[in-house]
Every structure is written in structure tokens, then in C-alpha cells.
Design brief:
The complex is a heterodimer of chains A (364) and B (142). By secondary structure, chain A is of the alpha/beta class. In chain A, 45% of the residues lie in helices and 13% in strands. The longest helix of chain A is centred in the first third of the chain and has 17 residues. The model of chain A has no long low-confidence stretch (mean pLDDT 96). Chain B is mainly beta. Chain B contains 1 helix and 11 strands; from the N terminus they run βββββββαββββ. Classes of the chains: A alpha/beta (364), B mainly beta (142). At the A-B interface, helix 1, helix 3 and helix 9 of A face strand 3 of B.
Chain lengths: 364, 142
């Protein structure tokens, strides 16, 4: 369904990964499901739902374009994960990664996409190569070398800024500076809603109890403290609440896992880069957005992110582009029965349309 | 004993990597020469075969010698130790949701019936360390 909204709603087909993995829906089925949710566009993983990857035939491209026409939906983005660890004892060199990256850019253009989600070394704020050596993704130098090729194919390389980082982190500047210096505006910032989580999602909470034996009461208490802090518009700091959690009784597993499970302080925490105000300030400079979520509660709300505030910040800040759903509850919940990705994405789109004041889609 | 818990909350497809599809003996010219399992990937997308870090099997408690293992993918067969080498091709993708057939060569095959099978599957990804999934269950080998 096509609209003239500045903020367009779409779906990353990644959201339907269980449907694809377990052969309930093929690529066409996933595209149709996105259209049925009311999406105007979609994102596709090169190495998940393009069975011919890496050598995609014209015949497949033609079929793909036929689906776009049939379902009245556009292809927005192709994902490039910057895989480098091809062998146990050897990584791709920079030159080899650049060559490989060109294949993604070229294929994105053939698919009619406008963006490649370029997994970059500052994907999570800090450098991946510092956090998980020797993993090293596309850095600013590599992106700079790809700029002329991206420009030639009219493809924007979207740099996804994922939790614990954000679009405002200083480390993102080197990439943008390269685009400025060359006068080739084909690198842009991509926001991911994971930056704005304010409490643990029930999808994670139940998973930690089920799979890792954490104490339910402890996690539920922590979630209540996180909720309380958010309501008071302040950051959640685990240490502050440890004495309270100790009273419930912590197992060794709880103690070991809590710091990781608690994640960040939330949008009202000490790191102002992760605030709604900052998101609003950056909104007009952002080229693409991942509408991340894990769970939707009985009230139709994403249970650990404040979609009203996030979407309002983007709208008031003048964001123009796509918010593509990135449902990630599947992998958190699919060990305890079928995870209904179709319903989660559908409900999330109802929620986003309600917040943005968009009418419900009509299919006739 | 059936495994019921994932090794971590975020281990994605771990409970499903060891499929019951096509689990049977292999015959050649009237002789049983081995048996096979079909695996699906432990990640949310496909990966080149060269990104497989390990496939390790235990059948009825006994570890399978990697030298006896062969991988069948898109009509071709690779000796398992070869896909671990530094010159393995990087453009042969194990499709997301697709089956990777692992043949275990064994003269006389394996007794038809229920066997306890354990699998460790490690894959290298781009931005996080090698993901090691582990699953075990009773399987009926046809």
C-alpha cells in the first residue's frame, strides 16, 4: 500500500524468520504477509530469503519485481553483514571485504532497493573489533572506499546504530565525515529502537527463567524497579536495587547474569545520547530506522519500549523515511512453542499507525 | 535422556538443528555403507559452508571420527575436514532453513531403530564470536 507519508511503515522480512525457517512461508509469502500487515516497503536479507544468493539470476530478479507489483510494496533495503571470518584461521582482507561488499550494493540496486544495511564496526557504539577481537566489520575507511560504487548504483549505506550505542555516538562521525569530504551523500545513520529499551521484555524474562534457571521473582522485581525508574524519568542503575533483590534471595545464576540481563539505564539514563531529545535532534539526519521489538502485551503496546515517545521524537524531529519492523521475539520464544510472528508484526503496525495518526489500510 | 533446555536464551534455533528428516542408513550396490542426518542452521540467516566451525556427532555416546564424515550440499559431496580448511570456497551457502546432509561412512551402516544422538554445531558470524549450539535426543534411524 503506497502513501505520501513522510514516515513510511514497512517490515524487515527478518521478522518472519521462523515462518521461513520452518517452511510455512517462502519469500513471496513473507512479502505478502508484510503487505497484509499494511506495509509500504520491506527489507530482505541477502543470505536468508534469496535462495540463489550470492549469484542471483535475472530470472529471480524478475520474479521478485513481479511480487513487488502484485503486492503493491517496495523493496527498501538489503542487508550486508560484513562477514569476514570465512575460515577458522584466516579473515577476509580489507580488499576482499570491499569486493564482497560491492556484490551486495550491486544486488541491492538490481532488486530496486534504496539502501544497504551495512554492518559497520561501530554497530553497537563501541568498536566490534575492540569488543570481540578479531571480529572486524566494515570500518570508516572501507565505507569511504565503497562510496563511489554506492553512488554509482544510487544506494545509501545505512549504518545501523544498535544498543548500547545510538545515532549520536561520536564514533559514527568518521563515516559521515568521509561522505561529506567526498561530496557523496551515500552514507547515513540508521536508528534501531533497541537503544530506547527501558526495561526487560517479558520475552527475555520468561526465556531466562526457562532456559537459564534464573529466579522469576528476582527478574519480575527488577522489571518493576525499571518500570518505576522510567515512570520517574530517571535511569535504572542495577546497583541501587541490588539490596532489594538480595532480600528476595539470589541464586549464583542470578548473580552472574543480572548485570547482563539488566542492560542499559534506559532513555532517561546518564547517557544523553540515548535520550528521546537526542533522537529528535538527529531525526532529520537519519536515513533509515529499524522498528525493533520483542513482545506486545494485552494492551497492544510494545512491552519494554515507549513507542509513543520514540515515534513522536522521530516525527517532531522531521524524520523522512522508513521504519521497518524488526521483530526479534521469535528467537527468544520459539523454544516454548510456535511464535506467531504474523500476529506480532500486525499488532505492531496497528500500534505505529495509531501513534502516527494513520488510517487503517483498506485492501480492495 | 531428552534435552529440554537451550544452552542460552539467545541460542536461536538450537532446539531444531538436529532434524528427524531423512534420518536413515545409506546403501550402495546392495550394501549398507553408512548413515546420515540432516541439519538446519543455528543462525538467523544462511552462511557459507566455510563458516562452519565444527560439526561434532556422538551416536550412542561414541564420538564420530571427523574423517568418516561427508557433507552433501546442492548435489555435491565434501569431505568434512576439507570444509574446515583455509582454502574452502566462500560462495557455497548453507541456505537459511535448508537441510545440510551429513553422511557418516560406516561399513555395515547402523542398526535400524532408536539411537541417542548428540550434535555440536559451531558457526562463525560477522559480529559476535562463534555460535556453538548443542542438542541431543533419541532418533529413529530408518
Amino acid at each position: 500500500m503506497k502513501t505520501d507519508h513522510d514516515i513510511k511503515l514497512g517490515v524487515s522480512l527478518y521478522s518472519y524468520q521462523d515462518n521461513y525457517y520452518f517452511h510455512r512461508l517462502d519469500t513471496e509469502g513473507c512479502i505478502a504477509a508484510a503487505a497484509d500487515a499494511g506495509a509500504e516497503g520491506f527489507e530482505i536479507f541477502s543470505d536468508a530469503m534469496i535462495p540463489e544468493w550470492p549469484y542471483v539470476s535475472d530470472e529471480w530478479i524478475d520474479r521478485f519485481n513481479g511480487w513487488k507489483y502484485r503486492y503493491n510494496i517496495e523493496a527498501v533495503c538489503l542487508d550486508h553483514f560484513s562477514d569476514r571470518a570465512m575460515w577458522h584461521d584466516k579473515l577476509l582482507t580489507d580488499e576482499e571485504l570491499i569486493e564482497r561488499s560491492k556484490l551486495y550494493i550491486k544486488t541491492a540496486a538490481r532488486l530496486g532497493c534504496t539502501h544497504v544495511r551495512m554492518l559497520h564496526d561501530n554497530h553497537m557504539g563501541e568498536r566490534i573489533s575492540d569488543k570481540f577481537p578479531p571480529y572486524r566489520l566494515a570500518d570508516a575507511k572501507i565505507c569511504e572506499e565503497l562510496l563511489p560504487y554506492a553512488a554509482e548504483h544510487n544506494i545509501v549505506m545505512a549504518l545501523e546504530c544498535h544498543a548500547p550505542g545510538s545515532v549520536a555516538d561520536k564514533c559514527q562521525e568518521a563515516y559521515l565525515e568521509a561522505a561529506d569530504r567526498l561530496g557523496l551523500p551515500f552514507i547515513g545513520l540508521q536508528a534501531d529502537f533497541s537503544t530506547y529499551e527501558y526495561r526487560i521484555s517479558m520475552a527475555d524474562l520468561n526465556g531466562y527463567v526457562r532456559n537459564e534457571g534464573m529466579t522469576r521473582e528476582v527478574l519480575e522485581a527488577m522489571r518493576e524497579f525499571q518500570t518505576k525508574c522510567y515512570a520517574e524519568k530517571r535511569g535504572f542503575v542495577l546497583d541501587e536495587f541490588m539490596p532489594e533483590l538480595e532480600k528476595i534471595g539470589l541464586s549464583d545464576t542470578d548473580r552472574a547474569m543480572l548485570p547482563r540481563v539488566a542492560r542499559g539505564e534506559g532513555p532517561y539514563g546518564s547517557n544523553k545520547n540515548n535520550s528521546y531529545e537526542t533522537l529528535k535532534n538527529y531525526a532529520s539526519k537519519i536515513c533509515y530506522v529499524h522498528g525493533k521489538f520483542y513482545y506486545i502485551d494485552e494492551d497492544g503496546e510494545v512491552d519494554n519500549m515507549d513507542y509513543t515517545r520514540i515515534l513522536t521524537a522521530l516525527k517532531e524531529g522531521g524524520y523522512k523515511g522508513y521504519i521497518n519492523s524488526e521483530f526479534e521475539g521469535n528467537r527468544r520464544m520459539n523454544d516454548s512453542g510456535w511464535c506467531n510472528e504474523i500476529e506480532y508484526v500486525r499488532k505492531q503496525h496497528v500500534l505505529m499507525r495509531r501513534i502516527l495518526g494513520y488510517p487503517e489500510p483498506v485492501f480492495d | 535422556m531428552e534435552q529440554t533446555r537451550r544452552t542460552s536464551t539467545n541460542s536461536i534455533y538450537e532446539p531444531y538443528i538436529l532434524t528427524d528428516i531423512g534420518c536413515r542408513n545409506i546403501w550402495e550396490a546392495g550394501h549398507r555403507t553408512g548413515y546420515c542426518f540432516n541439519l538446519t542452521i543455528n543462525y538467523y540467516r544462511g552462511l557459507p559452508l566455510s563458516c562452519i566451525d565444527q560439526i561434532t556427532f556422538w551416536v550412542d555416546g561414541e564420538q564420530i571420527d571427523p574423517e568418516d564424515m561427508y557433507i552433501q550440499h546442492r548435489g555435491r559431496e565434501y569431505h568434512y575436514p576439507d570444509i574446515l580448511k583455509d582454502d574452502m570456497a566462500t560462495d557455497l551457502y548453507w541456505e537459511f532453513g535448508g537441510l545440510l546432509r551429513v553422511i557418516i561412512k560406516k561399513k555395515g551402516g547402523i542398526a535400524q531403530g532408536i539411537h541417542h544422538v548428540k550434535l555440536i554445531l559451531g558457526t562463525r558470524r560477522s559480529y559476535t564470536p562463534t555460535m556453538v549450539a548443542q542438542w541431543e535426543k533419541d532418533m529413529t534411524i530408518a
